[in-house]
Design brief:
Strand content: 15-25%
Helix content: 40-55%
Radius of gyration: 17 Å
Strand order of the largest sheet: 1-2-3
Order of helices and strands: EEEHEHEHHH
Distance between the termini: 14 Å
CATH class of the domain at 2-106: Alpha Beta
Number of helices: 5
Largest sheet: 3 strands, antiparallel
Length: 151
Amino acid sequence: MDETSDDCARSVVNTLFVFRTQTKLVSVDFLEQVNNSTIAQTLFSVLHFYNIPLNFPRLFLSDSAAYMKKSYRDVLKPIMPQLIHLPCLAHILNLIGETWQDFPQFSLIKTFLAKIKNSFVKSPARKARYITHLRMNGVASPCKIPLPNKT
């Protein structure tokens, strides 16, 4: 699970399922408030929607935000004792990388990464897949496509 905001300034929680070698975005939820309780409620409703028993999930992967850690520790773990929380390595590496980005020795890498990001941001196929996903999940007229975060 990961939370971000869209261009309409709404909080968006994306939930992905991974089973064997398949990874699927299964839910995009717009929340009025994002905290440990609403994250847990969102996860429970997604699991219920897909008829997944609470003893089935094994891994909760999220960023290192305090509300994600608290959601796992205070709500999810007591109900699902088999669940392990794993903070996202990409988010951790991004935090580490931010400390180095202003050093002039890394300007070539910074330029290279900016060009890679541009190729993803301007991808018409990515935008079309996202709009199709939103329409299939009840969003009749989606706002602007959110830009990917740095991680």
